[in-house]
Amino acid sequence: GGVRGAEAGAINLLVGGDERDLERARAGLAPWCSAIHHLGPLGAGQVAKTVNNLIHWAQIAAIREALSLAAAYGLSVPDVRAALEAGPTDSRTLRELELMRLTWHVKDLANAQKMAAEVDMVLPIAEASRLAMLDTSVDELHRLLTTTGASEPRTSHSATGGTGAGAPRPNR
Q1: What residues have CB less than 8 Å from 3, skipping those under 6 apart?
Q2: CA dist., res. 98 & res. 82, Å (int)
Q3: Which residues, other chains included, contact 144 with Cβ-Cβ below 8 Å and sequence gap of 6+?
Q4: How far is residue 15's CA from residue 12's CA, in Å, rounded to a whole number?
Q5: What is the DSSP secondary-structure string of 99-126?
Q6: Strand partners of residue 155
Q7: Distance CA 172, CA 40 (A)
Q8: pLDDT of res. 116
Q9: Cα 92–34–24 angle (5° rounding)?
Q10: For every one of its 172 residues, what pLDDT tens digit does the chain have, with 9 covering 90 and above?
Q11: CA-to-CA distance for 55 and 121, rounded, in angstroms?
């Protein structure tokens, strides 16, 4: 999404409103959209965008936390990331993390919490993501994504140490 997506014609547009109005506007939207989804009445697009944003920020928070764990154990973050991209945890977020500006998380997650309150829902993942993102910066992500790890990670020789026999010990 965002400016990069619009310039590439890759916006996944989530629309609410009268479907006839959307059909009249479709030709003008098509050049900057890879897909246009009519999701219901007026407001449905905003709900879907908020759902999208909640997932997006939760992914960033989870990826940052997971890769930080790998780095703490002395693993090469670029190597772990490449391995993850080849498996079931692959995502556009994982692949494009260094391109993200991290500018809207406060607003986006506050919107999700406000919408949830309107329907008597609690969003613990949104709250955890909000807290994680407060501690996340573009510079910190860049450092993390380029962490190559220890050349010789220390290993545990205890089978009961919580990390298992042979697991690298965290770098502290």
Answers
A1: none
A2: 14
A3: 64, 67, 68, 71, 77
A4: 10
A5: G----SHHHHHHHHHHHHHHTT---HHH
A6: 168
A7: 52
A8: 98
A9: 150
A10: 777 888 889 999 999 999 999 999 999 999 999 999 999 999 999 999 999 999 999 999 999 999 999 999 999 999 999 999 999 999 999 999 999 899 999 999 999 999 999 999 999 999 999 999 999 999 999 999 999 987 555 455 444 445 554 566 666 6
A11: 16
Question: Using CA atoms, how far apart are residues 65 and 60, in angstroms rounded to an integer?
Answer: 8
State how far the Cα of 153 lies from the Cα of 141, in Å rounded to an integer: 22
Find the helix packing angle between 105-118 and 44-72, rounded to 10°: 120
What are the backbone angles phi and psi of residue 160, rounded to the nearest 5°? -115, 15
